């Protein structure tokens, strides 16, 4: 048995930051209040959308993930500063053979109700995720695992049916966080996650559509958090959210839209941090519905959309890439910029005519009611009008939108993908693998030859070979117009200057373990 060193250095450019609120000073705070007056350690985050749920087993969206990270923990994690995959609840691992992962767990960790964290909890969590009856949206992360053993309290053995080259990055995904079996059996932790994790904060309450409250876990195994309370406040109107940051009703937000960026940058009480990010925003198609099952129609749409002009409206918050796998993910190569489709209305009209639609057609574009997508949708609608595609907008609240797309009811749709692991495979498999239809493959993409290529990016242990497959897949999916990539995010975090210690990452997510207020 050969012991392997822990730590996989991600080949993507490091794009994470420990947000420390540069420009602030302790003297400023001391001048504003008595030195013996304690600062209330309550942090309010404003989110455009409510969480879909608070169980890692049953969710797959960013709003939920930001809550999950406070309550639960994974076996491994991506270091927000170095990009390395490193142990969290795990201590180490070995590979006695390519299809066996022996994971040793840390000792003396407890769930928030005092129950010891052991291998049985890992086994319970993963087996529930893999149970088809659960319909876990991210079961794909460990689909290759066909047997789980817990030979003692601190050893878990994962047996895979095929080699799985991205096992550790998968085990670092928020949706593979370990749940407390006792809490899960006692109730619905997707609505009430009290004592359901090992994380630094304990779920307290959820008022749907308004807020979720977490409180500190005083017995947290990495030390008591400095924050007493974290509130995830739902504020669908961006202008309202920005005002709340400015007047101190809220403490921080992410994804600052371009029209509000300068306003916050120029506010002396607010610090704005910007990083090149990996989230991609795109126009998608339902491949099971005509006319978008026709490559020439998809190419026409891509030619008709002027991405450069749209990015110019983003005030520096977006950058262009033609590929499905963007520049900040493993598997990207700049060769992809020689593929894709540049803005060319005449070419778009020609392709529509060749596809049998010389006079255009009517289509429905489904969109979730976030500010970002509500801005994109009318732009896409207007651009497609130029080639006689008459687009009707179908606007849904976020949870309804996700259910609508999961069921395959959409014709065209606007969406985004933020990659937690930083690996291109973690985009291809959930988004385009045929067995992900009904879960996260909203385009209902189903092509056997592409399934085969996706699997190669997933099972190949030789990382050089695996990256070669990712590059090949990027070219093929881009040429096939699996999506029309509109732009990649430059991610932003705006916070009151007295907020310190937020770990902000290139996927637009954050950790509050070490956060506090001065």
Automatic annotation (TrEMBL):
Which GO terms of the molecular function aspect are on file?
peptide transmembrane transporter activity
Q: Which residues span the membrane?
A: none
Q: Output the Gene3D superfamilies linked to this UniProt entry.
A: Dipeptide-binding Protein, Domain 1, Dipeptide-binding Protein, Domain 3, Periplasmic binding protein-like II
Bilayer disposition of the protein:
Lipid-anchor
What is the recorded name of this protein?
A: Glutathione-binding protein GsiB
Question: Which Gene Ontology cellular-component terms appear in the entry?
Answer: ATP-binding cassette (ABC) transporter complex; periplasmic space
Can you give the residue ranges of the Solute-binding protein family domain?
84-436
Per the UniProt entry, the signal peptide is: 1-29
Which InterPro entries is this protein grouped with?
Answer: Peptide/Ni-bd, SBP_5, SBP_5_CS, SBP_5_dom
Provide the family line.
Belongs to the bacterial solute-binding protein 5 family.
User: Where is this gene product found?
Assistant: Cell membrane
Report keywords, A-Z: Signal, Transport
Q: What is the lineage of its organism?
A: Bacteria, Bacillati, Bacillota, Clostridia, Eubacteriales
GO biological process: what's one of them? peptide transport
